[in-house]
Amino acid sequence: MSQEYDLVILGGGTGGYVAAIRASQLGLKTAIVEKSKLGGTCLHKGCIPSKALLRSAEVYATAKRGSEFGVNINSVSLDFTKVQERKNSIINQLHKGIQYLMKQGKIDVYHGFGRILGPSIFSPMPGTISVEMENGEENEMLIPKNVIIATGSQPRTLPNLMIDGKYVLSSDDALELEELPKSVIIVGGGVIGIEWASMLSDFGVEVTVLEYSDRLVPTEDHDISKELQRLLKKKGLKIVTKAKVLPETIEKTDRHVTISAEVKGIEQAYTAEKILVAVGRSANIENIGLQNTQIIVENGCIQVNPYCQTKESHIYAIGDCIGGLQLAHVASHEGIIAVEHIAGNTPDPLDDTLVPACIYSQPEIASVGYTEVQATEKGYELKIGKFPFRAIGKALVFGQVDGFVKIVADKETDDILGVHMIGPHVTDLISEAGLARVLNATPWEIANTIHPHPTLSEVMAEAALAVDGKAIHA
Ligand code: NAD
């Protein structure tokens, strides 16, 4: 069977399905090819399930602190089966929501594995999509005017450190644990590593983090890494930086796994029930037919121009498969840029310095724009405002006083170059900083925006005042 479309999207994750909805709004006849479930990594193996587990861990940890709030809870216990059921029901509800949106937008969904064909009897240009249907039905042939590749990414591991799903887990495996281990070694102290470290520790698991770099979350501002390390250590986690993991030393026994790492030149052995590997994700570009096109792949990622166009001008690529910031909100934004461009409009290209990044650990971390080091390297003369949550009334009310907001501004123009946050609910508070960056606001403008009292948002106004040494509650 063959069908013609204005647009076929390979992959129905956050990037792909959002692109499909915008395409349908613009009147394009659109189809999605999805090999697994609509919603992709974000809904089924990433953002949503991990945040659902993190929330259960937070509730559990808070319940144990109940007496601090005058709420005596005699015996707090964890029902991990229920935790997993809650996570799964959230996923199911959102999955149904996406299926409804596809029907509403009259977007055809093909459940199967899609491959890009080269020039063929169907089209003189590469881009016809052959779909190997998952239910064993006859292959479908889709003939689109345009294609968007939105195939996402998958967890990667270190050379010689094989993920076996039993002793050595990827983040995909960890999400499906039926019971919690007593102890875990996490290889990688980046975004995934830290979210899992925080969650497992709040669930009562003994956690050791082995991070190769000299600090946790190395892409964040140095002050954030330092505060994170301090707070995680306070929670009882073991943090080892400058740790070069030696995969060949791995030993598995009945219930435990041991692995060594070279730390400051000395080999140290670490033992736990499981190892969780969180050292990044690699683009899903295998077997999708790229060899039938002129599309360029570099460092394992599809190369695109600012409008997400590949070397084949009618084939676009968005999201994790093009590298850069591997974030769901980046993928969906790129999807919209690509579709608007296909429709003949002139969307603004994505500016990485306007993209907020969030880590949903306890404490939460969020940032947008340049770190202090990046801004200095770019040649800016800086003024910096920093304000602690400890001096914010609502933080005391919440019983979460650790952390701060740091604003990096340009001394000459007063522009805000970056905002870095660690502490309660900063993954929500960062949107104000994002808007400030988009509107090119100055610290003065943030400070003069009236922030309701008592709210955590007051920390932004105070940090903005602190840029010019005028914080009120300092
Ligand atoms: P990452 O790049 O954030 O972190 C990987 C960490 O592993 C780095 O700190 C790196 O220094 C360390 N590392 C690399 N090799 C190592 C080794 N041999 N031994 C020890 N440490 C080593 O990657 P990730 O945490 O796997 O996340 C993958 C992607 O998914 C990222 O782009 C991330 O932004 C995205 N993601 C985002 C969210 C979110 O937005 N909250 C959540 C999960 C994942």
What's the N-to-C terminus distance?
70 Å
Helical percentage: 25-40%
Unique bound compounds: nicotinamide-adenine-dinucleotide
Structural class call reads alpha/beta
User: Helix segment count?
Assistant: 13
Tell me, what is the CATH class of the largest domain? Alpha Beta
The count of DSSP E runs of length 2 or more, i.e. the number of strands, is 23
- Spatial extent as radius of gyration: 24 Å
Major sheet: arrangement of strands: 1-2-3-4-5
Cofactor: FAD
Organism: Bacillus chungangensis
Protein name: Dihydrolipoyl dehydrogenase
InterPro entries: Class-I_Pyr_Nuc-Dis_Oxidored, FAD/NAD-bd_sf, FAD/NAD-binding_dom, FAD/NAD-linked_Rdtase_dimer_sf, Lipoamide_DH, Pyr_nuc-diS_OxRdtase, Pyr_nucl-diS_OxRdtase_dimer, Pyr_OxRdtase_I_AS
Tell me about this structure.
It is a single chain. This protein has 13 helices and 23 strands. By secondary structure, the chain is an alpha/beta fold. The strands form six sheets. A five-stranded mixed β-barrel has the order 1-2-3-4-5. A five-stranded parallel β-sheet has the order 7-14-8-9-10. A five-stranded antiparallel β-sheet has the order 19-20-23-22-21, sandwiched between helices. The termini are far apart. Nicotinamide-adenine-dinucleotide binds next to helix 6, strand 11 and strand 19. Residues 355-464 form the Pyridine nucleotide-disulphide oxidoreductase dimerisation domain. This is Dihydrolipoyl dehydrogenase. It is an enzyme of class 1 (oxidoreductase).
